[in-house]
């Protein structure tokens, strides 16, 4: 993959200095195209050019060299493949192994912890309580992931894909609210941290929903659920992960082979193979029923603060604080438009320190956007409903798609006014320019 991190750093330095690509090129004696290639990660400056850039931006040569050499570090991505009982996860692992090994990834698999424990004699029915069993399972899950991450970072590989057969938030579906709260206290953690510790989550819908004739417990000794129990558990698992920045649900609307192909396509799209395209549709809706949204289990409220940074006219760069109840994670997003519905989107996780540093490069001509985002799963689709404090009669709903022609099924409680995908005035960047709203 291209070295977007180094390219973003060059872009940040140029933006801070108030230089266009043409002006930077003139200052160091290269073409505009060379600067563009640096910033999108397709090329690296030479050692002599590093010296010129360091002098121009008033930083040390060592800092730029260290940034440039970060390309040699392993690019590690951690995803979860989850789903209800008899959803096809075991087969999916084989498909993922074959597909992404061919794309140049070293693929590592974190085995399903529940199956390991139950087949080894540690189960909810052998422990004193379900809560005690869940403590064992989640602790082992997190320790296994740490070991795999440490191993991945020290491998002789350019990009590693860690695939978790279920993740930490799967446990939530097997506990009541009190047990889950006690679990978080036991771990000294919070739900945001556990959920968003993964780069993406892919949920395979159980065969008990839409492919009942193929549902079986024969191929997994740890599986005991009936068809109805499996369907109910599938819903709980989707609800547990709702709120993650990148959740995708793969249903049983096609035969099993095509289901696997759709999974591979979704993972490929997320990883940016061949390019990180985002297909997004956006709709203006009537102000939603907040009480309804907050009452349903498959909806999660997220608090977002979005700040736009200085950037050139061809790009949009922003940083975002995302979380709830005092627990937050941070991202930087760079977007480059490809077509009306397609954009190249590059996103990276930030530490709180990095986030605060980047805020110093905020575009003060734009207002900071604050909003409540309601993440809603419905009919195996993932909606993001943005409610802004300056609007009392309307809101925005977005949905990301792998196919721009896919049918969208809205809940009956969501009243669509019109589609605004192509209307720039409803983009967050435009709202940040408009102190009155629209």
Question: How does the SSE layout of this entry go?
Answer:
Blueprint: H1 4-16, H2 21-28, H3 32-39, H4 47-57, H5 61-69, E1 75-83, H6 89-102, E2 106-110, H7 113-119, H8 130-153, E3 159-165, H9 177-187, H10 191-195, E4 200-204, H11 227-241, E5 247-250, H12 256-271, E6 277-286, H13 290-295, E7 299-308, E8 315-324, E9 327-337, E10 342-350, H14 352-359, E11 369-378, E12 381-387, E13 394-401, E14 416-419, H15 428-433
Parallel strand pairs: 1-3, 1-4, 2-3, 4-5
Antiparallel strand pairs: 6-10, 6-13, 6-14, 7-8, 7-11, 8-9, 9-10, 11-12, 12-13
Protein traits:
five-stranded parallel sheet; 434 Repressor (Amino-terminal Domain); 14 strands; Rossmann fold; Hypothetical Protein Pfu-838710-001
Q: Would you kindly provide a written description of the structure presented here, covering whatever features stand out?
A:
This protein has 438 residues and is α+β, with helices and mostly antiparallel strands. The protein folds into three domains: 69 residues, lambda repressor-like DNA-binding domains (434 Repressor (Amino-terminal Domain), Orthogonal Bundle); 197 residues, P-loop containing nucleotide triphosphate hydrolases (Rossmann fold); 157 residues, Hypothetical Protein Pfu-838710-001, CATH 2.40.320.10. The chain contains 15 helices and 14 strands. The strands form two sheets. It has an eight-stranded antiparallel beta barrel with strand order 6-10-9-8-7-11-12-13. Strands 2-3-1-4-5 form a five-stranded parallel sheet, with helices on both faces. Helix 2 packs across helix 3. The longest helix is centred in the N-terminal third of the chain and has 24 residues. The radius of gyration is 23 Å and the shape is globular. The model has no long low-confidence stretch (mean pLDDT 87).
